[in-house]
Amino acid sequence: MRIALVAHDNKKQEMINFSMAYEPILRKHELFATGTTGQKIMDATGLDIHRFQSGPLGGDQQIGALIAQNKMDLVLFFRDPLTSQAHEPDISALIRLCDVYQIPVATNVASGELFIRAMERGDFNWRNIIKEREGNQS
Ligand SMILES: O=C(CO)COP(=O)(O)O
Fold it and tell me: What one GO molecular function would you report for this record (predicted)?
């Protein structure tokens, strides 16, 4: 599965803790992240992550572009609901695209934990069926 990891500044420590706790699961997947989030996770774990631009510089939109191409299976986006973000339109656009394309998106660590365990259990294997079907059409 392809997983996007994103965290606002006040949530980065939670994301680091999450990534350390679930490293054995995460390392079995293809990981993507916005710039600073990805760097911090890589510094704290042995995970290999494809890093996009920092969120305010377009990273959320780059992840959104992959969603629109059906190339992202799960988004873990630990948002800070108490701080306004200069790039709020990009954040809304990313979450909107998750809804457009039916991509599971967890916006806090509690739902992130449920999703990662569900993925490990095979609950997201339907994504492979969709990707195979789309691959056969192109
Ligand atoms: O702002 C972000 C998501 O909206 C996260 O970006 P960074 O990981 O670069 O801090």
Answer: methylglyoxal synthase activity
pLDDT tens for residues 77-125? 999 999 999 999 999 999 999 999 999 999 999 999 999 999 999 999 9
pTM of this structure: 0.96
Domains in the chain: ranges and CATH: 2-137 (3.40.50.1380)
Whether 34 is in the pocket of ligand 1, judged by its Cβ within 6 Å, is yes
Question: Could you confirm whether 60 is annotated as catalytic?
Answer: yes
Percent of the chain exceeding pLDDT 70 equals 98
Binding residues for substrate: 8, 12, 34-37, 54-55, 87
* Whole-number Cα distances in Å, 33 to 126, 132, 134: 23, 24, 25
